[in-house]
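Following up on my earlier thread - several people asked me to post the actual chain instead of describing it. Fair enough. Here it is, all 468 residues.
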Amino acid sequence: MQIKKQISLLIITVLLLPFACILLVPMFVYIHSSDSTLMKRYLDERQKNPNTLSTHNWNQIQEYISTTPHDVEILLVHHKKILFSTFPDFPKGNEVTLEEFFPYMRDTFSSYNYQIQSFYIVDDELYLTDQAKINMGKDIMNNSGFIITRRNINSRPKSRLVKSRFMIPFYFLIVTMEIIFIVFGIQVIRTISNSVIRLKFATENIISGDMETPVDTSLKKSEAEEISGLAENLEKMRISLKESKERRTRFIMGISHDLRTPVALIKGYSEAIEDGVITGKDLTKSACLINQNAVRLEEMINDLINYVKLNNSDWKQKLELIELKPVLETYLCNMRCAADMYRRQVSGNLDIPEHIKVKMDTNLLQRVIENLFTNALRYTKEGDSISLNSYLNKEGHPVVTIKDTGSGIAKKDQQKVFELFYRGTNSRREDGMGIGLAVVKTIIDSHGWKIDIKSELKKGTEFIITLS
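Reply from S.P.:
Thanks for posting it. Predicted structure:
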């Protein structure tokens, strides 16, 4: 479950308990009040009997009745007519006088407690009068009206029992909700805490330099999806840092190995000259060797600087849509000129339309082709052939290939030839630092292109570049 959902459920649970109390407590009070049972349809009664009492009088009577307990029965009489009744023996609509009601009241005194409240109306204002204070011989009740309320004598203990029975499940519900809230809250906190602790240990391993211990990316049922996703990203970062560390180590070892030879030669010959060991004609030869190794050292340093520059993304802002075929034709011509000097055979078939344009840096594309062509010259012999071809693949993307009939690349080396400072089995006897193909791969990847290799020992190699 997502952290957002867990926190949302936790908040809802926190709010639900007080909200339930806010609803249930007034509901309980209302159920046990007179408002829940008495004269809730008095406005309807007023509409059915418009000539009996005005709305204002009905409201006054309702206000009085609302103060009575919920378990009482009510009889409302106006001008002898029963306007409202919860007495089973006196249905609404019948007529009754107070004198007629007294005998019934005497017969039921053993079961009920009665209270009589009379009223009369003057100028649409209702006045209540305690019946006990009125002269019984006076017939004001029959000319106005009266309200009789009664309660069953045996109902009071029962009422308290009902009230008690209602409160038990009410409190049980509150306690149950509270327990659910506590359990759910603890579960959410424990889940998030365990996940964060797991990530904490993983980050501490990375900070301490331990790149070998993998991050646990398994998603547990109770764990948040975001935490698992974060763990996966952390694992990818660990792998990336590990590879970066390994590349940096190879980079330093490669530089130290390849730069050591020309530096040692320069140092050795210069010390020999300084000590007077080399004199005469040998002095000129030594100076020439020192110069050659200095030039070689300078070329290596320039290659390193250019490789570092390629990893700077600023040059990507200069990419332009350029027609591909003219660029290839120009370099094919240069290849033929160079091949004549090295006695190689160069051919080309540029089978792409003139209007095909590719977003690129022309100089970098030429550098890719130049590095691959130089590599082909190095690993071919006199009379071998090198070809530069281009065509459109099934998806309509231009493809450029450079193929030779040289010594080929061993299968075990084919996946590593693009790594910095890596030199294959067949290249150990050749000069170079193993930067050329790493530069090619960097340029290809930076443009969003793709490069593949097909090779077989003693039959040649083909590099296939797919541009997009």
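The longest strand covers residues 112-122. That should answer part of your original question.
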